[in-house]
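Run log, item B.
One chain of 757 residues. Sequence copied directly from the ordering sheet:
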Amino acid sequence: MLFRKMIRDMKFNKTQFISIFLMSFLGVFIYAGVGGEWYGLRTTVNKYYTDTNFANVWVYGKDFSEEDSQAVTHLNEVTNVERRLTLNATVDYDDSPELTLHFVEKNEISRCLLIDGEPFSNKEDGIWLDDLFAKSVGFHVGDTISLTSNGITLRKKILGTILSPEYVYSSGGNDIIPNHAKYGFAYLPPTAFPDNIEIFYTDLLITTKDNPDVNFEDAINKALNGHYSVYLTRENLSSYNVFDSEIHQHKAMGTVFPIVFLAIALLTILTTMTRIVNNQRTQIGTLKAIGFQKRKILRHYLSYGFWLSLSGSILGAIIGPTTLPKLFYPAMQTTYTLPEWTPAISPAFLIMAFVSVFVCTLATYFACISNLKDTPSQTLRPKSPKLVNHSVIEKSKLWLKLDFTIQWNLRDIFRSKIRSLMAIIGVIGCTALLVCAFGIQDSLDDVINWQYNEINQFNSKLTLSNNISTEQINSIKTLINGEAIMEGAMEIKAGNKKKTGELLVTDQVTLIKPTDANRNRISLPTDGISISYKIAKLLDVKKGDTVRWHIFGDEKWVESTVGEIYRSPVSQGITLTKELFVELGYTFLPTSILTDQIVTTTLDGVENIWSISDLTESYETMTEAMNIMVYVLIFAAVILAVVVLYNLGILSFTERVRELATLKVIGFQTKKIRNLILTQTIWLTGIGILFGIPTGNWLIDFMLSYMGDSFDMMRVTTISTVFVSMIITLALSIFVNLLFSGKMKRIDMVSSLKGVE
């Protein structure tokens, strides 16, 4: 009997029960969907790293001997060491794409993963080529590839195509996203090295028992007697760091927003069940009178929240991981390389589903328990109206001067504090999600303006070949009125903290306009290095402090004073002038030429020509996955607003039906009554919007905190974003309010005005 009653109640109150189902579904759907995406990435990449025995530490130098390898092997923390020679090469093909060649000694650490062809062998004289590079350029297994490195030409047969765990994220030149047609890698055995040249090893790949601590580098330094130039752990390897940051960003998004929906689900079921139970006091009293125990009646009403939240949670946990990841993966595949893209189900999804069911059932319990405490005779009678004291404002002289609409709405808000608070919370949630969604989009768009309009004011950037002569550089500069810069990788230390970043050496450059932390234009000093704001923050250094740094490939460390701190969104590192660079004992070797001209003609000594539009397009492609998240948030915010406001509107109408009937009896027209309620709706919506805007900004800051060490985005919330978020929220609120117009016309005056007998 009670089950049939539950089905009948759900039928008569289907809109409210659908909303409970939707909130439970959406909370778990987003959590499991986004979670299935990032957890799938984490599971896949961890398996990838394990299967290929991904290195824990990379040590780079000029020539590591077998004795060096043995010295490192004998360290307690070390489990294996392998030597490797890394060289840059140019392929004899259209547009001269670049390849990073790895002559691996054993292929035991950071092993290549075979995609096509024969397995890697140390005895074969051939090359195993980056699979994505091969597909982009048009090479196949069995083809012969010709490439040049340091003046030496190699012709090798392609024996296989591979992937490497060190190239999950990798871009060459000035690409933000990988351009596989211009840049790739290859593995070769030592036997593929020219016979007339003795092979030398530039890398030591090291695996350890556990993650190496801060003292491990000291042990490496002692074992190698200081003869190395770069020490990198996984966390400082660009490929690992960028992809790991991406996973953390998605994890943060997938964790915060389901909490919002879970809170709203609790709010929704609490309001809905409160209304239903209050309307069924007589039925509850009848059940008690005919012998039903309070415990059985309580279980009956608890089943409403339990079954709805359970079905919504289960459906969300099933559909989420099978749908949402498919929205994100295509965009991410343009930036990252994995052997497979498969979502995974985490035990946390079941926990989230359990929590959703538990809180919804708990909310139902609190909504029912007060009515079940009464005796059958008390429950059979309508609930007596609450006695509410006059508020302070009602007792003041100002009260009599207020319009009736204001008086009526203020009194209703003060007497229904919980309902009013719930309405405000619902609006805060909607506004915050909208501001966050549009604000993230604003922040992403702002990077383009900041990096490629405010800071970089060139129209073309020409990447120079490694063997270009000084005469050619000067000729190109004169021809296009260009300015030379030198870019590279460097490592910087302050105290016990160390970070890797980009080195920029400028030669009287005017087309790069640096900005400070507040985006004000500044001039960088000529007698000291300048350090980016993000690196300075990570190293905890400020202007005037002393840091030590060195260029990758050079063992010499330089001690410099921080002369200025500049801020850049996509390039973190240090900047100094050519004069200071030479004074420190280095040779200035330009890698690019900047010009305000639009260059399209191929020039001798120039490998690539980048326009601002090319760089902008690369950035937009990389942020495509984030844009998809923005659309998901906007959709979720709209659903949230409609469901919450409609439920609260139903509850408000039910609680005030006696008052509304009274107003009709004394002559108020339906239009006037509707305006009364609309006024209160606008008030509460306005309060919710005021709190929702800063909450949305906080959510943006939270998201941007997971951007990783390479990016330094600023939160930007434009006036249009705030305005559009306000308009959408207010429009939804008014729309939901208008849905109750028909209910006001159909108020049963007799039953509504019938007093407590």
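Observations after the first pass:
- The two ends are 29 Å apart (CA to CA).
- The chain has four domains: 1-52+238-384, 62-228, 393-450+614-757, 453-613.
Flagged for discussion on Thursday.
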